[in-house]
Each structure stands twice: as C-alpha cells, then as structure tokens.
Design brief:
The complex is a heterodimer. By secondary structure, chain A is an all-alpha fold. Chain A has helices at about 35-40, 55-80, 90-115, 125-150, 150-175, 185-210, and strands spanning about 5, 15. Chain B has helices spanning about 1-5, 25-45, 55-70, 110-120, 130-165, 170-195, 200-220, and strands at about 15-20, 20-25, 75-80, 90, 100. The longest helix of chain B is centred in the last third of the chain and has 35 residues, at about 130-165. The chains are: A mainly alpha, B mainly alpha.
C-alpha cells in the first residue's frame, strides 16, 4: 500500500490520505485536518511575553563601582610592587585609605538613599548601605588580601617584572620624545581614582533624586 | 501607553529636573568634557614645565622656605639658578641627612592642577538655563578656590615633609604618607566644591547615561 493511501474507519475502503472526507462513504477521515478559518489567522497570545531581566540602575552603579575599585586595587598593587615605591609598610596605609573611602562613601550613600534604596530584602537606607559596603569589603578587600598573602611572592615577582618592563618602556619612549621634561608618575591616579569613586556616588544621588520625581 | 504618561516622550529632547533646576546638554559638550579633560590636562602639565613658568617654582619654594623658617625656625633658604635651567631647591643648614631639596614639577602638584583646571574649564553649561553669567561666575569661583586650596595644602605638605625629615623620619615613609593624606583631602575638597558650585559636571555625566538608556529604549521599541 502506498503511503499516501489510508483506510477509512467507517467503510474500510482505501482513500487518499490528503482528503478530508472519504470518497466512498463521505465520513470524516481521522487523519484529516478539517479546515477552519481560525487556522488561517496568525497565533496571537493574550498573555504578554515575559519581561526581559534588566539590571536595575543602582546595580549597575554598584557593579561599576566594584570594577573601578578592583582595577584601582590591582593597578596600585602592581605599582607598589613594581615602580620602586616601598612595598613593606605601605599596604596598611593603602588599606586604611580604602576603608576611609568606604566609610565616606557609606555616609554619602546613606544620606542619599534614606529610605528609597532596598538592598538585601527588607534593608533600606543605612541598612542597605551597610549590606552593600559589607559586600564590597568582603569581595574587593578581603579576597585580594587573601590572594596577595597566599601568592605574595609570585604576585610581587610578576608585578615587579611587569612594572620594570612598563617603566623601561615608558622611560625609553619619553626620554627620547621629551628630553628634559618631567613625566608624571602614578601619583595622580590615586587622586583621580578617589575623585571618580566619589563622583559615581554623587551621580547616583542625582539618579535617585531624578527617579523619585 | 502608561510609560509615556509617567516619563518624557521618547522623541522629545531629554531634560533633567534636579533641585528645581532644569538641565539639558548636548552630546558634543559631554564628549568634549570626557575626552578633552585628559588631553587639556596633558597640555597644561607640559606648559607648566616651560621656562616661562619658572616663577611658579620660585614662588612655591619661597613660600615653603618662609613657612619652614617662621613655623619651625629652620633657617632655610632658596637656591635659584639664574639661567632657570635647574629647578629651585631649598637649602637647610645643619640637616642630618640631606641639605638640598629640589622643587620639581610633581612637587608643586602640577599634575593635580592640570587635571582640575582642565576639568573645570570644560564643564558644560546647561542649555536649559538662561543665566550664562551666573555659570561663568560659579566656574571662576570654583577654579580660584580649588586652585588656591590645593596650592596651600601642597605647600604645607612639603613644609611638613621637610620638617619631619629634618627630625629624623625617613624621607620615603613621610613622603608617601603625606602624599596619601593630601590626595584624600584634595579629592574630597574638589568634589565637595564641584558639587556645591558646579554640579553640572556630575549631572552632565548622568545626562549621558540617561541619553544612552533612552536610545536603548527607542531601539527596543523599533
């Protein structure tokens, strides 16, 4: 039997598969799909499509802040190890600086957010600020410290090599280009880094104000 | 439909209303601020190293020497090269380790000055505000006070650095510690002044963020 032929369930005679009704007895064939006007219409769902998961604005700001501090920390580690600044006794000062910045940032954040920011469930305002800062301290400060402690020798050796290479490259390039002109070191980066971190939080306060309206 | 009732229509120019003031910027202004600041600051930094600006080094050295003599009685004096080929230096008699301290470009915080000056110069005015004179006044006020404040802080930083070094504290240690302290104080000072008198610098960046997010929404609607 050909594949295009089926047996009618009523009269038992063979008929063409594509037919809607049996050509012998007129019964509706089981495999046939009765044509209806509904089929011609495109499928329209009444339920709206699921909303795309978007990062909230303050999540973006936090991520940006985390990235900025992370990059700042890594750069500073490399600079400390590789650019001739004293490595020992310098780290606590650096840590102190970050804690100071975080406290300042926390105060600004707390004042700005008051009750509008809800981070970590029911927490809001200063509470939410505490969660965020706690998280940042844990991730940004504790993890690199642990890594730096465990792999301090490797890190310092690699950083020293990178620092030396960069230093040589910069000095060779600029000494030829600007003979007799002083080139800034990495000192401005601390100022710029702090300025940027504070700016981000001020921008965030403006964002909160604008969103409230 | 609901969205358009609560927010500005997507095809309208974005205007941000903050603290009762309207802010509107063009993308060009913001791009100039972001890209121009490092470039102009580099130019200012190199300009400060030209011989015509030798008087700044001379003036700073004299100020430091004056503070050292008047506050700590160190009998210091400034040595100046008449041909202006060598940086001026501060000579401290009876010093245990080092008697001469050259005042170089980085000592006078030229990099910080160049960043601040270029940033303040390039802050865009709000197009929604009609009072341009007020903006220029605020800009001048912020520029003068920031530069003076940072200058004073830097002069005292160097004076204390030389004093502590004279008293036996290792140079590297005191140099780095005071540098950290001054960077923190300087950045806080600058940010607070900018927020008070020139909030346009932060609002323009925020405006750019809003413009980008608005464009994204428009693209997603298309």
């Amino acid at each position: 039997m050909s594949e295009d032929v089926i047996i009618c369930s009523k009269c038992g005679k063979p008929t063409i598969k594509d037919n809607v009704y049996c050509v012998h007895c007129g019964a509706l064939l089981e495999s046939a799909k009765p044509f209806s006007t509904d089929q011609a219409k495109p499928y329209i769902s009444n339920t709206p499509p699921p909303p795309k998961k978007k990062l909230k604005a303050y999540h973006k700001v936090i991520i940006f802040f985390v990235v900025v501090i992370g990059v700042d920390l890594l750069l500073s580690l490399i600079v400390m190890a590789g650019f001739g600044l004293p490595g020992t006794g310098y780290f606590p000062v650096f840590l102190g600086l970050f804690f100071l910045v975080l406290i300042v940032v926390g105060i600004i954040w707390g004042l700005a957010s008051s009750s509008s920011v809800h981070v970590g469930g029911g927490g809001g305002g200063f509470e939410g600020c505490g969660y965020v800062i706690g998280g940042i301290i844990a991730i940004i400060i504790a993890v690199p410290i642990w890594i730096a402690t465990v792999f301090s020798q490797i890190v310092s050796a690699v950083a020293e090599a990178i620092g030396q290479a960069i230093s040589d490259a910069i000095s060779n390039f600029f000494s030829g280009l600007f003979e007799g002109i002083e080139i800034p070191g990495f000192e401005p980066f601390l100022f710029i880094g702090l300025f940027l971190v504070l700016s981000i939080f001020i921008i965030y306060t403006y964002h909160l104000k604008a969103v409230k309206k | 439909m609901k969205e358009s009732q609560t927010e500005q229509p997507l095809n309208q120019k974005l205007i941000i209303n903050l603290d009762g003031k309207m802010y509107k910027f063009s993308t060009t202004q913001i791009i100039i601020l972001i890209l121009g600041t490092p470039l102009i600051s580099l130019l200012i930094y190199f300009f400060l190293q030209l011989k015509i600006n030798y008087w700044i080094y001379e003036f700073t050295s004299m100020q430091i020497s004056f503070i050292l003599n008047s506050l700590f009685g160190m009998n210091s004096r400034v040595i100046i090269d008449p041909e202006h080929n060598i940086f001026p230096s501060i000579f401290i008699p009876d010093h245990p380790f080092n008697q001469n301290y050259a005042i170089t470009t980085n000592c006078i915080a030229a990099h910080i000055f160049s960043i601040i000056i270029s940033l303040i110069l390039l802050i865009p005015p709000s197009k929604a505000s009609l009072n341009k004179k007020d903006f220029i006044l605020r800009k001048t006020k912020t520029l003068v006070i920031t530069v003076l404040g940072i200058y004073l802080m830097n002069v005292f930083r160097i004076a204390f650095l030389l004093f502590f070094n004279y008293k036996g504290v290792p140079f590297e240690f005191i140099h780095e510690s005071l540098f950290f302290l001054s960077a923190i104080v300087g950045s806080l000072f600058t940010v607070i002044l900018l927020k008070k008198w020139l909030p346009e610098v932060f609002i323009s960046i925020y405006y750019l963020y809003r413009l980008i997010s608005k464009k994204k929404r428009m693209d997603s609607k298309i």
